[in-house]
Amino acid sequence: MPVTVKFFASIREATGVDAIDVVIEQGESADALLRRLVVRFGEKLTSALYDSSRALRKDITLMVNGRNLRTLEGLDTELHDADVVLIFTSIAGG
Q1: Contacting residues for 82 by C-beta, under 8 A, at least 6 apart
Q2: Best exposed site among 4, 64, 72, 88 by fewest CB in 10 Å?
Q3: What is the pLDDT of residues 34-83, one digit of tens each?
Q4: Is position 94 within any domain?
Q5: Domain coverage including residue 53
């Protein structure tokens, strides 16, 4: 089943594309999707997503169908057919 993944800001720079469709298994987690993306895009994306301890960087935001993963089940959130996943870096400042 396909999900659409859209990349923004430095994540787009790391992948070199705006969006892709990824075929995943029904109920696969957001974490598993990220692992698939790292395999596909390599070290540049790994560095953009993860800190030195291999934890997801705090400034990375993932949204599924307009909902922030932090308000769902985090990286354990299950994905479903035709979901749209947005991945971007949070912007802060003043």
Answers
A1: 1, 2, 3, 4
A2: 4
A3: 999 999 999 999 999 999 999 999 999 999 999 999 999 999 999 999 99
A4: no
A5: 2-89
